[in-house]
Design goal:
This protein is an all-alpha fold. It contains 28 helices and two strands.
Length: 672
């Protein structure tokens, strides 16, 4: 029987679903309504509420604020929550994937990147409307995700993994553009975080019209959409046009997402949480989910926004509602992950294997020469105050070295340590897509640093490193715990890491949104800046990198054996618990030290080990050496480009490395 078919049993189930969902809706909307009424009562007498909403007195600023700010924000939270929830239901139905949502498919991030880039380079396109630009960006992102996963028959985990990774890259690209044109895009950056602060009813009326039109267009394809829950052959047997129905439904879902992004920015995870709540309430039929999920999404975002406003008042700053919703969505993603059906486990593969074995010595010598040339070139080649390119002479070099050398050395050490951590993680987890950035280890280091900076009045570098290392190690421990339950399945481990990273990024965003002066330092550091590195700090980084990478090299035998699997490794004499603890401790320390220098997101920890493998470096020690040299080369080049590409302005090395490593990560996803 199709998903939308009726029957006594299903009718009873639908009634139970509505009863349970009614309780959930009440649990979400009643507190939100109470908080909204309480906010109105503190600013305006109840007798004036109706007048303030319908026809405010132009001479009363409080009534004007209620009419043009308070009520539009409430209405926008309700409409955006309903639209994202409806989009999530459609995505999940078409892709038969309970983790599909605007945020997990990269659609929201793609729409935001399209708006940012259009604002910079093609503002004339806005004559067609912001919604059209956002729709094009979101549609392009979804097309990339589907193109990456069509060979895997749109397997649920593969689709979500590709979407989350593409979302990370689009977010980094948008952040790079914002930093490049800070004065032009600062307002867009605040809006892009998902701010529901509105000035008037224009956005609300537009969203209401768009949501109503989309709902009307959804009605004709409701029955064919219900049949998509069947297998391919079953759907064709009842005369459903699979491709036409999928295209129409996906277009509507992308449009709903684009409408929200163009109106208020990126709101994360509501499209995942609301459909999941509808399913948990017992809604099995598509018709029930299409009605229940928008109500739940509206209540969820309304209540979240009211809580965000109270929290903002308490800390004296503005909190982005869109970022805070990740605090709800990430734990739900972790909870749903063990319940996600995977068609077949991936085989355990040694991440160091390659069909072409080559001698390591010539390759390592070549990488070393390239690194030396890049490092020396970054010190000598630059721009004069007039913008002309010039090589520094002996007289100029003495003045320039104190500025250039510490930054270049810090970038080199950070790239080397991230690459070493990537080799450890890929071999220890037997997962070729593992890295400090993808598994959320960098985000854990960021949160540890934030806790130290805000908890201690004067936190030195030693204490900052300890906090970052503690956060990184805690994330790695949680990854190991979750991975052990799933037999270290590569896809589940990656999704768990990405979900943890999103949760920790949201926590960091909440902590740093209060306007505290220390937040500026944290935000500057998170972009991957080496601006403030001086000579002593660079020397400290070099010493730490030598010690950590040397310790990893001493563990090369363990790294050779770990990809064989736990039974084989134990049979060959490894104490798995002790070995894993030591290796993950080294990975955490290297990630923490590197993250302090170049921020939590560079993708060097993923791409450098793979580059070494592609060069033919199979054994653990040779792969480690090649990855360390490649990672250092990438970061030195990124730091130099960050200093020179937009001279006299500078771009963070971490963001430049992200823009380099992101396409490589997408290419790896397409191959694997």
């Amino acid at each position: 029987m199709a998903d939308g078919a009726a029957g006594p049993c299903r009718a009873d189930g639908g009634w139970r679903a509505w009863s349970a969902a009614g309780l959930l809706i009440a649990a979400l909307t009643l507190p939100a309504a109470a908080l909204s009424v309480q906010a109105l009562a503190t600013s305006l007498r109840p007798s004036l509420w109706l007048a303030a909403v319908l026809a405010p007195d132009p001479a009363d600023p409080v009534q004007l604020r209620v009419h043009f700010v308070t009520m539009p924000r409430i209405a926008a939270s309700i409409l955006c929550g309903a639209a994202l929830a409806l989009a999530g239901v459609i995505f999940q139905q078409v892709l038969r994937n309970p983790l599909a949502a605007p945020s997990t498919l990269g659609v929201s991030a793609g729409a935001k990147l399209a708006l940012v880039s259009t604002t910079l380079w093609a503002p004339g396109l806005f004559v067609f409307g912001r919604e059209t630009v956002a729709l094009a960006g979101g549609g392009a992102a979804l097309a990339v995700v589907l193109a990456l996963t069509w060979r895997k028959s749109f397997a649920p985990v593969a689709v979500v993994l590709a979407g989350l990774v593409l979302g990370l890259y689009c977010g980094a690209a948008a952040a790079a553009l914002v930093l490049f044109e800070e004065h032009t895009l600062v307002g867009l950056f605040i809006w892009g975080s998902g701010s529901l602060s509105l000035q008037g009813w224009a956005v609300v009326s537009t969203l209401a019209t768009q949501l109503a039109v989309t709902a009307v267009l959804l009605v004709p394809i409701l029955r064919p959409l219900s049949v998509l829950s069947l297998e391919e052959a079953g759907a064709r047997s009842v005369g459903v046009s699979l491709h036409g129905t999928r295209l129409a439904a996906l277009t509507l879902a992308v449009a709903l997402t684009a409408f929200v992004v163009s109106g208020v920015g990126v709101i994360g995870f509501v499209g995942l949480v609301a459909p999941a709540l509808a399913r948990l309430a017992g809604a099995r039929r598509l018709r029930d989910r299409l009605l229940l999920a928008p109500l739940l999404g509206a209540g969820l975002l309304w209540s979240t926004d009211q809580l965000v406003q109270r929290a903002g008042e308490a800390i004296g700053g503005l909190l982005p509602t869109g970022a805070v919703t990740a605090l709800f969505g990430s734990p739900l993603l972790l909870w749903l992950l063990p319940r996600l059906r995977v068609a077949a486990p991936l085989p355990v593969v040694d991440p160091g294997t390659t069909p072409h074995r080559r001698r390591a010595e010539p390759l390592l010598v070549g990488l070393t020469i390239a690194l030396v040339v890049a490092f020396v070139g970054s010190l000598l080649l630059g721009r004069t105050p007039s913008g002309a390119w010039a090589l520094a002479g002996s007289d100029d070099l003495a003045a320039l070295l104190p500025w250039r050398a510490p930054r270049a050395l810090a970038a080199l050490c950070a790239g080397a340590m991230l690459a070493a951590a990537g080799v450890i993680l890929q071999r220890t987890t037997r997962n070729p897509m593992a890295s400090p950035e993808v598994l959320g280890v960098g985000a854990g280091a960021a949160l540890g640093l934030v806790v130290v900076v805000f908890a201690v009045a004067v936190a030195g570098h030693g204490l900052q490193l300890a906090g970052a290392a503690g956060g990184a190690f805690a994330v790695l421990g949680l990854i190991v715990l979750l991975g052990r339950r799933s037999g270290f399945g590569p896809e589940r481990v990656l999704l768990a890491g990405i979900a943890i990273g999103a949760l920790l990024d949201a926590l960091v965003g909440v902590v740093t949104a209060g306007g505290d002066p220390r937040s500026l330092m944290i935000l500057n550091w998170m972009s991957g800046s080496t601006y403030q590195v001086d000579g002593p700090q660079a020397a400290w980084c070099a010493g730490g990198a030598i010690l950590l990478i040397g310790a990893v090299a001493l563990c090369s035998r363990w790294l050779d054996l770990m990809p064989l699997g736990d039974p084989a490794s134990a049979a060959l004499g490894l104490d798995l618990a002790r070995v894993r603890l030591i290796l993950l401790g080294l990975a955490a320390g290297a990630t923490a030290a590197a993250t302090l220098l170049v921020g939590p997101l560079t993708f060097v920890g993923l791409t450098a080990p793979h580059l070494a493998v592609r060069l033919g470096l199979q054994r653990a020690l040779s792969q480690l050496a090649g990855a360390v040299l490649a990672g250092a080369l990438v970061m030195v080049t990124a730091d130099w480009l960050g200093r020179m590409a937009a001279f006299p302005w500078q771009m963070p090395a971490g963001l430049i490395a992200t823009l380099i490593g992101g396409p490589a990560l997408i290419w790896l996803l397409a191959r694997r």
